[in-house]
Write a structure and sequence with these properties.
Layout: H1 6-37, H2 43-68, H3 74-79, E1 81-85, H4 93-98, H5 101-120, H6 125-149, H7 156-161, E2 163-167, H8 172-175, H9 180-184, H10 199-217
Antiparallel strand pairs: 1-2
Helix pairs in contact: 1-2, 2-5, 5-6
Length: about 220
Amino acid sequence: MYPNVRGKRIGAAIIDNILTAFLSFILYIIALIISNNLNLISQNSVMIYVIIIQPTTFFICHTLIPYFTKGSTLGKLMVGLKVVGLDYHNPTFIQLLLRNIRLILVFFTTVLPYGLYLAFQTDYVLISTLIGIFLNFAVQLTILIMILSNEEERAFHDMIANTYVVPRNFDILKVTEVNALERQYMDWAIFEDEELPTPEVVDSLKNEDDDIEILKKD
């Protein structure tokens, strides 16, 4: 039932990390150019741009793009994967936001430490950053272990958002389709591609059941 996508998920994650870092770098350079032209260059202004750029980049790459591509980040598009809900339909925006663990991590690794620095000029910004980096590594490692070790290939962010990762050509109707051999043992079922019995056929079946009941009584 669950297609093996472990290798592709790891490949997609590597691609997404590279693309996200590249986009962050481009946006950061643009922000520096704009602030330089406006004579806004200072330590605090750079930190503010870092705080804004990092969450925005992860939101775009891991929530906004998958929403418009029906479940795929750029990395998943390249390797042919998509995210689906528990009903195997396209994920909702809320589901994509909930499973965006990178957006949550960047809050602890970037936004919180620099935000504390700007607010309190605290000397603990380096410690906070190191803790955030360690947390980022621990979460990524946990996700990898969970994907490799459970049958459904789901990590905790999949479970929180109630999602699966499947191939982009995955079709639940084909998976649940009953083949000809199985139909032979399901004579009680009426399939969509079969004609419904006419009233005459239904009446004849009822009459046969009545005759059987009479014979049993005799």
